[in-house]
Amino acid sequence: MNELNSEKNWPENKSPLKSPWVRGILLLMFLFFSVNIFMAWIAFNSKPNLVAADYYSRGQSFTERTRQKNISKNIHNWDFSLIHPDVFIGKPSLFKLSITSNGRTIQPDKVTFLAYRPSDSAKDFKLSMESSTDGINTANITFMYPGNWDIIIVAEHAGYEADFAERIVVRAP
To answer: Do residues 110 and 152 both lie within one domain?
Structure first.
């Protein structure tokens, strides 16, 4: 009778794969490796959007343009002032820009608003700002995607060009 009880309490012929603990651990390991393989596949098959084929020539061109803009901005002593409310997804936000030089308001010939999304260049856009008689340039802009956006405003006046940059955060309502 002792031999019969010992067989019931300590079965030696059962496979460890029938234990729910072993199955659970194996399932977790399978999920862990599957997710890692999937993430590696995404990393190799998606392009980063921030790399251009002609990056060297574009960098040189950007450096030269930046130098020219800084010279004209410093010579003419332009001061940019951008006013905007908190920006939320899907809600229009009024951006107001004023440019002064030595205390006088400047009415630029052309003002361009550029919005760059660092994480996805496909969502970048640009538009022209409207100018008013009081020297304020305005744009009513609706952002459709949340996150960080780099705003660059380029002003052209009397053959000179200067820009202003700011990073904003677009939030969910």
So the answer is: yes
Q: Is 137 exposed, middle or buried (0-12, 13-18, 19+ CB in 10 A)?
A: buried
22 CB neighbour count, 10 Å cutoff = 12
Q: Residue 131 belongs to a domain with what CATH number? A: 2.60.40.1930
| Any domain includes 64 | no
Own/partner pairs, 13-18, CB within 8 angstroms, 24+ separation? none
**pLDDT band at residue 33 using 50, 70 and 90 as cut-offs:** very high
Whether 75 shows a pLDDT value over 90: the answer reads no
Same domain for 21 and 85, yes or no, is no
User: What pLDDT does residue 2 have?
Assistant: 55
What domain range includes position 157?
Answer: 77-171
The DSSP annotation for the chain comes to -HHHHHHHHS-SSS-GGGSHHHHHHHHHHHHHHHHHHHHHHHHHHS--SS--TTHHHHHHHHHHHHHHHHHHHHHHTEEEEEE---EETTSEEEEEEEEEETTEEE--SEEEEEEE-TT-GGG-EEEEPEE-TTSEEEEEEE--S-EEEEEEEEEEETTEEEEEEEEEEEE--
